[in-house]
Amino acid sequence: MRLAPALLLLSLGATPVLAEKSDAGLPGENARFSMTPTKDGFLRLDTRTGAVSLCTVTGTSAQCRAAAEDREALTEEIERLAKRNAQLEGTAGVRALPPQEDMNRAMDFAEQFMRRMLRIMRDDSKDPT
Predict the structure, then answer these.
(1) Does residue 128 belong to any structural domain of this protein?
(2) Both 80 and 100 in a single domain?
(3) Are 34 and 47 in contact (CB under 8 A)?
């Protein structure tokens, strides 16, 4: 009975290394994953990304989870992004109009501009040159 988990553990440890060597295509290139045995399973280190996973073997299956500190940081980031997303969704449809005094100033400016342009056009049409 103890032989099955040991064989599974051995095969799980060897599989990523074999896959990596066939992926790499370069002889002598370092393997992507480094496995370190622990009391309850093994630690898997991704040598390219630095991600550490704690893998446990129960029965005939292995389950790998991100290391506790990584999982906590990822959970915090997910929660932060979810709050930010909810905040942005809540304000996306609401567009406040500018205050009435700002609107009045804009309209006064537009009116002055139009009057000046009309005066310039009238003066140009009177000038025979």
Answers:
(1) no
(2) yes
(3) yes
pTM of the model: 0.34
Q: Are residues 60 and 76 in the same domain?
A: no
- Residue 2 Cα to chain centre, angstroms: 42
Kindly report the backbone phi and psi dihedral angles of residue 61, in degrees, each rounded to the nearest multiple of 5, phi listed first: -130, 155
Tell me which of 66, 86, 102 is where a domain ends: 66
User: Strands, E, within the chain: which ranges?
Assistant: 33-37, 41-46, 52-58, 61-66
Digit-by-digit pLDDT tens for the chain (129 residues) are 444 444 444 455 544 444 444 344 444 456 888 999 988 888 998 888 888 888 998 888 889 888 766 777 888 899 999 999 988 887 766 677 889 999 999 999 999 999 999 999 988 877 666
Which domain covers residue 83, as residue numbers? 72-115
Q: How many domains does the chain have?
A: 2
